[in-house]
Design the sequence.
């Protein structure tokens, strides 16, 4: 008799278990109609502004329709001057919004999860990062660029999401995933 | 009190004695299906406890009946015993139909050779075998069969593959409902809880017309159990614990059946795993959380019945952190590195990137048998699939899914199974289906696939003819109408210049142009015809031969038509084409089988020719603000896939058994004379089992599986310029990983527990030698190794 009773209670417990799980599992589903999303996270523009007094050089990449569609355009306003120290500032914009969305601010807010890397093929140029994230590691929105002798080559700007920080200063050592990678042709004279 | 009862009895008996007792009952016993007379049926007359036999014409006669009730119980060998009651107040003639398809009524006896269709080439997994995979997926369970492999994304997203074909080329039918769960995606695993099913059948041959015309790869049937009509209550609970991933699964089910034919079942399971481990490192963010529940009620008798079923599957799947990459440079770094770029301490948390999928499935089915005709079944079913994919995103989008799709499907179908002819069985059916896809807004990203409405209407006719006692022939044809009405924004430059759609499809354009995007309304109508032929012949010594031919047609799926954009986990831009045609496949398959306990085998060669086979292949490189990406485009080629599946079982001694299988396959892109991409390589499995019935059904097994390196692959490797290194780097996306061999151990023992219950204990070890390996058919092979050793303990209690 006792056996039968306990068996029944086990079955009852099993039933309770199943039904409680079933209730927990149900969740409401929201829904919408005919609303078309478009790319809001887009970065259309990378602008690197280098300033030394009245000598201002901008390096700009712009791809207004994002991935696919028309190709992006590169615009370098002029040559850099040899043996000069420039204050550099990077700006990321989404110009499909009006007014343009300043993505740099988002990067700044999440400075510990991001880092800009600057690589140039002209060995006389040195670029140092002047800003720090909450952990005291460089972010690279503000930079100092010092030119040496005249020459031509390229300058690559990368923004890495979730890099290893601190790292040895190269993007290869930082891992992470690449959010921005643009390469400009530059000249020092 | 007593005198009243006595008085009543007297009154009743005197009443009956006063009745006329000269009536005659004439009966005829017939077969329900074809109306033929049944001779030598036993007729038991309850009222006077007498037995009669029907004559050669199925007739019988009862004379000298009195007014009042008459209860007859008619039985015949191979038939269901039937009890009928009449009220006699005149001479009567009655036809009594008996049902000789006894197996239809009872639980299908576990028998791996019982086929859904007499002439089909198929394999199945029964409940006992499925239970071994209680904390795994459908794809894992099928993977052990010959000719079946799987396309994986990590270890938890497992898509079954039949003869190298998967996704839209496979039909998965769950409880007689065709699954629509965004199955077109390579990293979209079927939303089926393996614990809710009783048996899984894989039809590799051509007998798939009842379910669809597009089963180019084949058909997977997930079948529920048929319950015996008896009063019983049955429950079981299974707990499975694993060392790798430090998680497991608990499943409970409760089944109540009644003699009247009513039955009910409740089932629920919960699964959780943390980060899995490869032999050398933790696979950060690879866990899973999964909740399932299902409920079914129904009523089954021979003549009529119904079945209602509902299931919910909720999957939360973590995607390996290291597989989130930015551009092709990151991909090169991942391929060249020996370790994933992110390795953190073990955790149960499911972080981005991840998938969150909720799938509801409900159906109701009812049937009625009509004399001299057959069985009519009507079914309505609906499914809601909500798929959210979360990526590693910046700022305010960090907790917003990048993909959010809601697919609603509902269908109404009807099948008439006609069995009134002796040797010919016919199935005729119609189906109407409406499907709506909603790319839920708020993702802040271009939808992967657009909003669309899809309408389907189908009809089919299938015949099965018994040529003689040992051979059977089947033929069928099916017509499908499909209409897709979509709404999608295209990049204006792409629409006009890149794809030239402004000239090809001006009718799709609307005048709405916004932010360099044009709103379009692509609409497509397809008419598909499919057919099959089958032949089966039984020989002496339990051998049989099956030959199938099938013509299958598949309409391009939404991703093939509409994809355009970046696919993060693959670091590639994927581009679909509105110009794609439907795929048309011819399949020929044969199977020579010997079903025997002591020595059995099956040898199944097959050949498929696929016209306009749709594939996604790299075509060039595009440069974006994120850097360079390879561009992958869908294109169409003519393809062939052929191979052979071999299964062998042999009894070595009374207690030792051997089982093995071998799968050989080759896929060719005939248009370009190169191999097809992502075809499974040659693999074979050997398994030795010791089984002792008397020693608590002790079973100990050792399984070995070898997968050879795939040497037939198309070379899509390319070079890309790395602006940081200022040099070209080689992107090796095609080369295949080397061969590997895995060993696994399993053991189980059964005890009596409680009064009538049983307790099953299992100890299993997978990847016994902790081998480090990569599988060609895992999309994450660039990023990490496969799983290392896992020790699994299972406890199952039946009570």
Sequence:
């Amino acid at each position: 008799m006792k056996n039968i009773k306990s068996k029944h209670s086990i079955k009852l417990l099993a039933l309770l278990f199943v039904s409680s799980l079933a209730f927990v599992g149900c969740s409401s589903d929201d829904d919408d109609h005919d609303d078309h999303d478009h790319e809001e996270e887009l970065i259309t523009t990378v602008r690197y502004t280098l300033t030394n007094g009245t000598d201002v050089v901008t390096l700009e990449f712009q791809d207004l329709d994002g991935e696919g569609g028309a190709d992006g355009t590169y615009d370098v306003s002029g040559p850099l001057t040899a043996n000069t120290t420039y204050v550099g500032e990077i700006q990321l914009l989404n110009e499909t919004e009006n007014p343009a969305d300043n993505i740099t601010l988002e990067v700044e807010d999440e400075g510990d999860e991001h880092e800009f890397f600057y690589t140039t093929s002209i060995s006389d140029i040195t670029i140092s990062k002047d800003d720090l994230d909450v952990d005291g590691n460089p972010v690279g929105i503000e930079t100092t660029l010092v030119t040496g002798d005249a020459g031509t080559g390229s300058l690559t700007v990368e923004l890495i999401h979730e890099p290893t920080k601190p790292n040895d200063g190269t993007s290869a050592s930082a891992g992470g995933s690449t959010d921005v990678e643009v390469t400009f042709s530059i000249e020092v004279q | 009190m007593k005198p009243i009862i006595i008085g009543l009895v007297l009154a009743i008996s005197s009443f009956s004695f006063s009745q006329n007792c000269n009536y005659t009952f004439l009966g005829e016993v017939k077969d329900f299906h074809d109306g033929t007379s049944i001779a030598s049926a036993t007729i038991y007359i309850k009222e006077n406890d007498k037995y009669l036999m029907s004559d050669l014409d199925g007739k019988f006669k009862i004379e000298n009946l009195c007014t009042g009730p008459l209860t007859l119980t008619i039985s015949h060998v191979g038939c269901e015993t039937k009890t009928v009651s009449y009220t006699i107040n005149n001479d009567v003639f009655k036809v009594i139909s008996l049902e000789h398809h006894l197996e239809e009524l009872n639980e299908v006896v576990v028998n791996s050779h019982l086929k859904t269709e007499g002439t089909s080439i198929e394999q199945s997994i029964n409940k006992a075998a499925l239970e071994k995979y209680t904390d795994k997926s459908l794809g894992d369970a099928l993977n052990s069969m010959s000719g079946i492999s799987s396309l994986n994304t990590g270890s938890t997203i497992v898509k079954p593959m039949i003869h190298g074909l998967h996704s839209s080329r496979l039909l998965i039918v769950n409880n007689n409902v065709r699954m629509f769960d965004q199955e077109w995606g390579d990293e979209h695993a079927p939303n089926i809880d393996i614990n809710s099913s009783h048996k899984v059948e894989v039809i590799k041959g051509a007998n798939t017309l009842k379910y669809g015309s597009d089963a180019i790869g084949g058909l997977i049937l997930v079948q529920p159990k048929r319950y015996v009509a008896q009063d019983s209550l049955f429950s079981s609970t299974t707990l499975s614990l694993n060392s790798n991933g430090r998680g497991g699964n608990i499943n409970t089910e409760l089944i109540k059946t009644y003699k009247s034919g009513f039955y009910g079942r409740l089932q629920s399971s919960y699964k959780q795993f943390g980060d899995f481990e490869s032999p050398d490192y933790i696979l950060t963010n690879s866990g899973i959380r999964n909740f399932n529940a299902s409920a079914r009620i129904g009523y089954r008798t021979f003549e009529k019945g119904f079945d209602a079923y509902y299931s919910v599957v909720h999957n939360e799947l973590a995607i390996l952190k290291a597989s989130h990459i930015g551009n092709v440079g990151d991909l090169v770094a991942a391929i060249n590195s020996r370790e994933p770029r992110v390795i953190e301490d073990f955790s149960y948390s499911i972080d981005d990137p991840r998938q969150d999928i909720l799938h509801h499935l409900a159906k109701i089915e009812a049937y009625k048998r009509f004399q001299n005709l057959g069985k009519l079944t009507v079914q309505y079913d609906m499914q809601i699939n909500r798929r959210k994919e979360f990526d590693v995103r910046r700022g305010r989008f960090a907790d917003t899914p990048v993909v959010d799709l809601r697919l609603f499907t509902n269908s109404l179908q009807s099948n008439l199974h006609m069995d009134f002819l002796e040797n010919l069985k016919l199935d005729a059916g119609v189906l109407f289906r409406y499907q709506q896809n909603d790319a839920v807004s708020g993702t802040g990203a271009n939808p992967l696939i657009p909003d669309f409405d899809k309408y389907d209407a189908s009809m089919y006719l299938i015949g099965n003819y018994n040529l003689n006692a040992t051979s059977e022939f089947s033929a069928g044809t099916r017509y499908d109408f499909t209409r897709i009405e979509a709404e999608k924004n295209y990049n204006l430059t792409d629409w006009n210049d890149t794809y030239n759609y402004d000239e090809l499809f001006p009718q799709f354009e609307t005048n709405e142009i916004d932010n360099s995007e044009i709103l379009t309304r692509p609409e497509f109508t397809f008419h598909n015809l499919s057919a099959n032929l089958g032949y089966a012949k039984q020989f002496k010594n339990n051998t049989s031969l099956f030959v199938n031919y099938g013509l299958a047609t598949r309409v391009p799926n939404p991703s093939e038509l509409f994809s355009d954009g970046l696919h993060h986990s693959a670091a590639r831009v994927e581009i679909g084409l509105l110009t794609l045609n439907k795929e048309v496949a011819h399949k020929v398959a044969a199977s020579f089988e010997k079903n025997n306990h002591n020595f059995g085998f099956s040898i199944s060669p097959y050949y498929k020719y696929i016209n306009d086979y749709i594939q996604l292949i790299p075509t060039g490189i595009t440069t974006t603000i994120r850097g360079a990406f390879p561009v992958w485009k869908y294109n169409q080629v003519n393809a062939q896939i052929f191979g052979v599946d071999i299964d062998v079982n042999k009894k070595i001694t009374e207690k030792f058994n051997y089982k093995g299988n071998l799968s050989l396959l080759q896929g060719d892109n005939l248009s370009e004379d190169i191999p097809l991409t992502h075809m499974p390589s040659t693999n074979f499995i050997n398994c030795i089992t010791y089984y002792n019935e008397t020693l608590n059904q002790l079973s100990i097994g050792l399984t070995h599986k070898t997968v050879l390196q795939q040497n037939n692959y198309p070379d899509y490797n390319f070079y890309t310029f790395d602006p940081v290194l200022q040099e070209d780097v080689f992107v090796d996306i095609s080369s295949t990983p080397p061969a590997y061999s895995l060993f696994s151990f399993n053991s189980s023992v059964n005890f009596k527990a409680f009064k009538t219950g049983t307790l099953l204990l299992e100890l299993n070890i997978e990847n016994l030698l902790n081998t480090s390996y990569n599988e060609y058919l895992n999309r994450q092979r660039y990023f990490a190794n496969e799983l290392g050793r896992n020790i699994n303990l299972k406890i199952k209690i039946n009570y």
